[in-house]
Write a structure and sequence with these properties.
Shape: globular
Helix content: 10-25%
Number of helices: 14
Strand content: 5-15%
Distance between the termini: 47 Å
Order of helices and strands: HEHHEEEEEHHEEHEHHHEEEHHHEEEHEH
CATH class of the largest domain: Alpha Beta
Number of domains: 2
Largest sheet: 6 strands, mixed
Number of strands: 16
Radius of gyration: 24 Å
CATH superfamily of the largest domain: von Willebrand factor, type A domain
CATH topology of the largest domain: Rossmann fold
CATH architecture of the largest domain: 3-Layer(aba) Sandwich
Structural class: alpha/beta
């Protein structure tokens, strides 16, 4: 009830409404192998790519697009290995047999669905990220329509509209069908499949909402029993309205009841899945009803020392049994609001409990439960069958329902590859498996314990505005921390751009080196701008603790990899682009194929 009172009171202070928010309870997490028996095998795979489409993502989209051939080849036409497990030959097609004395690394998959969604779910009822953004000059004379992709499957090839990749039967996803078993048949050309998927990844674009909802986006598409058609503020509360029947139709076509389900997320920032009920929308609200910039109330003083302290709450909350806090009142005796330097809209999703006294985001347990439990809450909070573990089309002949052991979640996220590689000096040796991550203590280093507020021991994985102790200048991981104001965070890792950008040229979107006087490791002297540091030569990624918490939470069903590649210069190398990502993913899936 405290959370209900806190958000309601904050909304009263800001003039945004005075009613409460229904608290979202955590979902119990069960075993990853269902009924405890042997994990089943799968003869079909449904792969959902969740692609962050916020600013600065185009460089990472390109790296992932270059890995689509590896993904298709690894699943659809795996190599033949000898008795020692070493690659001995590569058949021309998935239907060709191995030479005598050899066998496939795993059974070739001849039934694959691949779909793409983005991280953009709009402003969650707030005034940010409008569904139709007519102020985006890059899409002029049209409008940017990618702030709210609603969790729908995406096949666009042009972020401003006008281009669509061909999809299976016009259903929004791709289908691999070399045996011609589908009706109508899917594609049997692996190059066509890889090319179309690469085009769809690039087409997601980087104009989406900056309050990225990576976790809630896949939850909306795969799990939400009642995905809403729209959301608006009614009597001060964000109120989901209607039913998104288009999404439900896409889900039923894409998600088979007995397939292996793989969710692969590409993101360079932390998740910001804002609760879509009550007044949680104020986390993304930019202006008051009068049009002034909105600033949230200050948190109580206890929050700075311990966000888990029972008295860590918003100054707008009732004092209760907590001592009086003089910092909660301004000079006029009113509830004190944060100033512009303390509450920049770009950082509304950062360290919320300490900075605001309230956590506006869905708990990560919501998503762990969605991948492991037979039931999930509907819009009214009642437990109903989980679509992931249901037969979405009882009219067909397939009545089998997948076991939780056939659900995998992988992340290409903001974490240095050196920290999660088997060999920190050579990514060709591969990424650590879930068991290796747990047994090596890597989770303590890169994630810490979010539940208790224990920070990671690796300084590069600490979310911070200030420079962090232990991060040296010119290091090979993130190039060193930089001097920033109050609207950005330090980087977890960086990597060289495929093509440097001259940020003094206004035609370049999402440039990180526009300010000539900087100590940003992404920037270098620009020969076209008198040697000022306006040449962007590297891309960045921020720590991604919420996505990593989900991956840790699903144990052996998780795959953790880095968005910062180790090699972008040698396409023939084992560590090129996201080839190690694909290898880690297929390595984890192979025993279930």
């Amino acid at each position: 009830m405290r959370k209900r009172s806190a958000i309601a009171m904050v909304s009263c202070i800001l003039g945004l409404g005075a009613t409460g928010i229904a608290c979202q309870g955590a979902v119990n997490v069960g075993g990853s192998n269902g009924n405890g028996g042997p994990l089943p095998k799968a003869d079909k795979v449904d792969i959902l790519l969740v692609v962050d489409n916020s600013r600065s993502m185009a460089d990472k989209h390109e790296v992932l697009a270059r890995a689509t051939q590896d993904l298709v080849q690894s699943l659809a036409n795996p190599p033949c290995v000898d008795s020692n497990g070493a690659v001995a030959s590569n058949p021309a097609s998935a239907l060709d047999p191995c030479p005598p004395g050899q066998m496939r690394r795993h059974v070739p998959m001849t039934d694959i669905h691949v779909g793409v969604i983005s991280s953009s779910l709009g402003g969650h009822g707030s005034d940010s990220c409008p569904d139709v953004d007519s102020n985006d000059l890059a899409c002029s004379p049209g409008s940017n329509l990618t702030n709210n992709d609603k969790g729908h499957l995406l096949s666009r090839t042009d972020v401003c509209g006008g281009g669509q990749a061909p999809t299976y039967d016009g259903k929004g996803f791709l289908a691999w069908d070399p045996k011609g078993a589908f009706s109508p048949p899917g594609t049997s050309d692996p190059s066509e499949l890889a090319t179309n998927l690469a085009d769809m990844i690039r087409g997601v674009g980087q104009k989406g909402c900056g309050y990225e909802s990576q976790l809630e986006s896949w939850y909306r598409f795969l799990v939400d029993p009642e995905p809403h058609a729209s959301i608006s503020v009614v009597n001060g509360e964000a109120t989901p309205q209607g039913l998104d029947t288009d999404l439900l139709a896409q889900r039923a076509s894409f998600l088979r009841p007995d397939s292996m389900l793989v969710i692969l997320t590409l993101t360079d920032e932390n998740d910001c899945s804002i609760k879509e009920s009550g007044q949680s929308f104020i986390a993304a609200q930019l202006r008051t009803p009068g049009g002034a910039p909105l600033k949230l109330p200050r948190p109580r003083a206890e929050c700075a020392a311990d966000p888990n302290d029972p008295c860590c709450k918003s100054c707008a909350m009732p004092q209760g049994d907590c001592p009086a806090d003089p910092t909660c009142l301004d000079s006029t005796g009113q509830v004190a609001l944060l100033n512009a330097g303390e509450d920049d809209p770009n950082l509304r999703c950062f360290d919320q409990k300490r900075r605001f006294g309230i956590d506006f985001l869905y708990p990560v347990d919501r998503y762990i439960g969605a991948l492991t439990q037979a039931t999930v809450p509907n819009r009214a909070g009642e437990l109903v069958p989980n679509p992931i573990f249901s037969d979405l089309d009882p009219s067909d002949t397939n009545a089998n329902v997948r076991d939780p052991g056939l659900v995998f979640v992988a992340g290409i996220v903001g974490v240095p590859w050196q920290d999660i590689a088997r060999d920190p000096s050579n990514l060709s040796a591969g990424y650590k498996s879930p068991t290796e991550l747990a047994e090596s203590g890597t989770w303590d280093a890169i994630l810490g314990d979010p539940a208790t507020g224990t920070a990671p021991t690796n300084p590069y994985m600490i979310e911070s505005i200030e420079k962090r102790s232990g991060v040296t200048a010119g290091n090979p991981i993130n190039g060193g921390d930089r001097t920033i104001g109050d609207n950005d965070l330090q980087y977890a890792c960086t990597f060289p751009l495929l093509t440097p950008r001259d940020c003094s040229d206004p035609s370049h979107e999402s440039c990180d080196c526009s300010e000539p006087n900087n100590d940003n490791p992404l920037c270098a002297p620009d020969p076209n701008n008198g040697g000022a540091r306006t040449l962007q030569v590297a891309a960045k990624a921020y720590p991604s603790p919420r996505t990593m918490s989900l991956i840790e939470g699903v144990g052996n069903q998780g795959v953790l990899t880095s968005i910062c590649p180790s090699n972008l210069t040698d396409p023939s190398a084992d560590d090129y682009a996201y080839r190690p990502v694909i290898r880690a993913l297929v390595e984890r899936l192979a025993s279930r194929l």
